[in-house]
């Protein structure tokens, strides 16, 4: 199994002889105990660092999610304001168009009245001339 993982036979034998507990039944040499303690401390430190990094990552991820939610909320509010402004603008234009139509109607009516008045004056002046 270790051969498949890419370890050389020399490294495998060295590791087994270094940590071979079966040949030493009475006591574990002091150097071996220190090596094991160092290895356990190193692995424990790695796990602690990993957990801290994971906790930091989870906190950052949560903060990013909160910021994203806030940004989406702001964008929704801006879109609502934009829709409201567009509605107000349409109403204003319709009122102006209505006012313009009323102004146009009044202008056309006054022109028709002026023409009618001019026509009546012309007819009366022609009638007056015929009477003379």
Automatic annotation (TrEMBL):
Residues 113-132 are annotated as: Disordered. Gene3D superfamilies: 1.20.5.340. This is Uncharacterized protein. It comes from Caenorhabditis remanei.
